[in-house]
Amino acid sequence: MRLTKVGALAAAAVVVFAACSSSGGTAAPSGGGDTGAVPAACKDKKGTSSNEIHVYSSLPRQGSNTEQTNTLVEQIKKVVEGQKIGDFTIKYFDLDDSSAANNGDWDGAVETQNANKAAADPDAMVYIGTYNSGAAKLSIPILNNACLAMISPANTYPGLTKAVEGVTAPGEPESYYPAGYRNYARPIATDDVQGAAGAEWAKGQGKTKAYVLDDTQVYGAGLAKAWALQANKIGLEVVSPNKTSEGFDAKATDYSALAQKIKTSGADVIYIGSITGQNTGKLWKDLRAAMPDVLIMSGDGVFEKSWYEGTGTAGNGTQLTFGGIGPDQLTGDGKVWFDQYKADHNGDQPATYTAYGNAAATAALAALQKAGTNDRYEVVKALLATKDLPTVLGPLTFDENGDAIGGSISGYQVETSWPPTFQTLLTVSE
User: How much is the pTM?
Assistant: First the structure.
């Protein structure tokens, strides 16, 4: 894999990347290798209503992610609610997959309930979610067995759609598609790409030794492993145990000992794969107290105002990657959308995933329009066959795995306030 850093303010256009590694073994319907035969799970899956089609979303609607998910729901509702598909009108259902018992973060039991609820509704045709990759691991198999199309605006763990050596687990992605076909797609880049881009960015800044941490969740561990894997390849020495990512205890009350261990290692860059709710405020504060000048880098799991509110000044200087185009870097129709969003929201700019929520909803609507029926398999086929669909991100096409073809990785830096400042586009090619 070769990565090239594009000049910070010179990059104005979307730059294409090719996926690092792709492995499937599970047939995808139309557009990804349609065999012509209807999977057994998809037989007799027509809705029962004569005038309604249902679209569900499942996202954490409380806790630290609400800055993102409030805007996702707003965009989904704006795109699909009340739209006509022949004699049918789309009715949208906003489900919450978080729980107070889990401090407002996604809860596996709740996500499982949500997926089962949608699967059991015969008029459900599309499931938009999840926000967290760990939640998607639970819902994809349920929806696959129910022949229900699923599209996520934010899942970035590569193992949901493809195998990446050194990053994904054995049996992935086939284990998520028990019915033997694909029903899942996403417009966002995967973390093998984002992690590699981040490692290249650090190396390009002259960093020589890296300590890599993760929150032990699916997203955080996958992203951190991908970062470490690429760092090892390009000669950026990984000094954390076994030259890979080390999990940190998100329930710890103090990270001073961990910070001293990292300081002793001689690391000049710390990479952290995590979501905001995993005690990141305390982690950053303790690391920064021990190493005030070390570069800390992380991914889009903490690209949230709530993360910065938790870290305070300890977050200053942090470099963040986002597995797509930042909203302030969109061009064409995306720039028109961005400006309108700000006008409609008192000058506030959208959160990083907001445009991806719009694009996911646009793809869902287009699939329903193309299918023109309340037959789940026709909708699945139409979604996976998405090609050159106009969206606020630009033309959207899914490959045989359900991953978006083309895109960019954005690099930002937190200065002394939120939001962070755009630095560069990082492109990835084979």
Answer: 0.89
Q: Distance of CA 369 to CAs 84, 125, 222, 379, Å?
A: 9, 12, 35, 9
Distance CA 250, CA 248 (A): 6
Is residue 273 within 8 Å of residue 222, measured between CB atoms? yes
Task: List, in sequence order, every residue forming a beta bridge with 320; answer none if it has no partner.
Answer: 298, 412
Minimal CA–CA distance to 362: which of 390, 336, 394? 390
Pairing of β 149-151 and β 124-129 = parallel
Tokens of 32: 């990804």
Q: Give the tokens for residue 169.
A: 């687990």
Q: Rounded CA gap, 9 and 165, in Å?
A: 34
- How does pLDDT run across 59-99, given as a tens digit for each residue? 999 999 999 999 999 999 999 999 999 999 999 999 999 99
**Nearest alpha carbon to residue 220 among 185, 202, 245, 254:** 245
Backbone angles phi, psi at 90, to 5 degrees: -75, 130
Quickly tell me which residue has 């690209």 as its tokens: 303
C-alpha closest to that of 373 among 91, 127, 125, 29 = 125
Cite the beta strand spans of 316-395 per DSSP E. 319-322
Distance CA 270, CA 250 (A): 17
The angle subtended at Cα 115 by Cα 114 and Cα 116, nearest 5°, is: 90
The residue whose two tokens read 């938790």 is 310
pLDDT in tens, 166-196: 999 999 999 999 999 999 999 999 999 999 9
Quick one: the chain helix, strand, coil %, rounded to 5? 40, 20, 40
Token pair 């970035």 in the structure block, residue: 156
* Parallel/antiparallel/unpaired status of strands 421-429 and 2-6: antiparallel
Take residue 62 and report the two structure tokens written for it: 């409380």
Q: Give dist(CA 82, CA 80) in Å, integer.
A: 6
Joined tokens for residue 352:
């990083």
Alpha carbons within 13 angstroms on the beta-carbon side of residue 283 total 28
For residue 242, the number of C-alpha atoms closer than 13 Å in the C-beta half-sphere is 7
How many CB atoms are closer than 10 A to CB 25?
8
In the block, tokens 């959208």 appear at 350
> Among positive and negative, which fits the CA dihedral 400, 404, 406, 412?
negative
Residue 221 in contact with residue 189, Cβ under 8 Å? no
Q: What angle do CA 244, 245, 250 make, to 5 degrees?
A: 165
User: In angstroms, rounded to a whole number, what is the distance separating the alpha carbons of residues 126 and 47?
Assistant: 12
